[in-house]
């Protein structure tokens, strides 16, 4: 049984997040280790079951290598997962993030992960809700990747792999996936009473493309909604809301910034949200923001729909109809 301190937090789970001060024996990093580090980096945060779905093998063996990579600072175990480790019954999978030595390793292999960033510091600032959200996004992309392995399916180009396709200026920026959009007061719904130009930074949870055999691409921005974000907040300055996201995406599309910054001739915004009721509220907000235009720009679904028929199934909803397939390019 775990021993409790004065604040009633069991010490043993927390020790799993701390590296030992004991001297380390020589460590030879293998090609498989490199694949594990790369898998974590691409997903931003990942647990061992998710890593296994990328690199293969058994959870036991991958878990052993991940532990060694943690001890030798190629991977980190973010400390803010301590809530899950000390609250829930059983032993939830440990979450890993890219460590500073791991970034150096990947940069040395020519992969797009900056060794100049202090990844350990970034990981330490990741709070529990952000970790949970990132794991959910990773789970979504793993299911999309699995669906794309089926015969006659398109090739998935996921997030970091899009960098070579982005315009030169974007590719060499510090934050290539962010678009800053300026919206004039006349283009904001009157109910929001916006008197000054509104600046919104649009950063998708994930950017990805489907590459087809005819050398065409479908491009998507993914938003994973956990249900905690306000949908219709009238405050659009200094507060996150889904209405604010809709404003940002709609106007970057109207201004053609998706082409200028990302090099996309077209794109669609995919939102995964917990319930059908919440989708209906989002559709109402979308109709207000877009004046009931751009029906095909935004698509919605739920985790339940995805689990039943998969991300390439007829599980997506627009403001006009239900039963949309992502591969439908009409």
Overall morphology? globular
Order of helices and strands: HHEHHEHEHHHEHEEEEHHEHEH
Strand content: 5-15%
Ranges where pLDDT stays below 50 over 5 or more residues in a row are: 1-11
Distance between the termini: 59 Å
What structural class should be given to the helix and strand makeup? Answer: alpha+beta
Sheet having the most strands: 5 strands, mixed
The oligomeric state is single chain
- Order of strands side by side in the largest beta sheet? 4-7-8-9-10
Total beta-strand segments: 10
Number of H/I helices: 13
Domain module count: 2
Radius of gyration: 21 Å
Could you describe the 3D structure shown?
Helix content is 38%, strand content 14%. The chain is an alpha+beta fold. It folds into two domains: 116 residues, Orthogonal Bundle (Arc Repressor Mutant, subunit A); 158 residues, no CATH class. The strands form three sheets. Strands 4-7-8-9-10 form a five-stranded mixed beta sheet, with helices on both faces. A three-stranded antiparallel beta sheet has the order 1-3-2, with helices on both faces. β9, α12 and β10 form a beta-alpha-beta unit. The longest helix has 20 residues. The N terminus is likely disordered.
SSE blueprint and pairings:
Elements lengths: L10 H5 L15 H13 L1 E3 H8 L3 H13 L3 E2 L5 H6 L7 E4 L1 H9 L10 H7 L2 H20 L7 E4 L9 H4 L7 E5 L14 E5 L3 E6 L5 E8 L17 H13 L2 H6 L5 E5 L3 H15 L7 E4 L1 H7 L21
Parallel strand pairs: 8-9, 9-10
Antiparallel strand pairs: 1-3, 2-3, 4-7, 5-6, 7-8
Helix pairs in contact: 2-6, 3-4, 10-12
